[in-house]
């Protein structure tokens, strides 16, 4: 029996495989990617590695005798099949995955200042990772919904580069973190920025609407007053005109009467009785 059957290790770390053997055995061989790298002889307790990067020891696992095989300073060239072949038994194969976590994580642009309620777009870049990392975001320590960000990865030589873009609505000051994770890491690598909220500019819409309403009402009142005053002025002017015409007609009649009396008076002046 071989454990684990699938193992993921970071580049330059050590990885172990344990084989438990039932019954008698004499020779066990270990192979990595089809190349025999270590031989163990039970009768002499001899361990014969082909390179110093490979070692083994006798052990006890779950109350049974076992062999622990170690690959030191694993590289991506070691990724693949690891085979334990015990003489007289069927070979057992495990799969080794090697991840390189030497890449970088960075949120572009640094800290952000935005008005309350505004939308913020942040971009996180990971470079030189193998394989492509899993990228996620947090805001004030809380996971950001995956529907709010999009991540794409592209190969760059023997590694991967990733770009992740997130859109957030700024409701309060926040620490936003971009996390890059590989299964072999004990903790994700991260980069963070701060979002600072500034007071939202006052909304003048309501005030403008009120001012316009009052202004319109005032203008309407002034217009009505103007019409009333104009009408009153025209009425008074018409009345004065009619009074003036009556006065002129009266004056004309009086003038006619006065002239007639004068004529009669002149006629009587030359009259002599018989």
Automatic annotation (TrEMBL):
Bilayer-crossing regions: 204-231
A GO CC term attached to the entry: membrane
Key word RNA-binding present: no
Assigned keywords, A-Z: Immunoglobulin domain, Membrane, Transmembrane, Transmembrane helix
Location in or out of the cell: Membrane
InterPro entries in the cross-refs: BTN3A2-like_Ig-C, Ig-like_dom, Ig-like_dom_sf, Ig-like_fold
PANTHER family for this protein: IMMUNOGLOBULIN SUPERFAMILY MEMBER 5 (PTHR44991:SF1)
Principal subcellular localisation of the protein: membrane
Protein name: Immunoglobulin superfamily, member 5a
Positions of the Ig-like domain: 91-194
Coiled coil: none
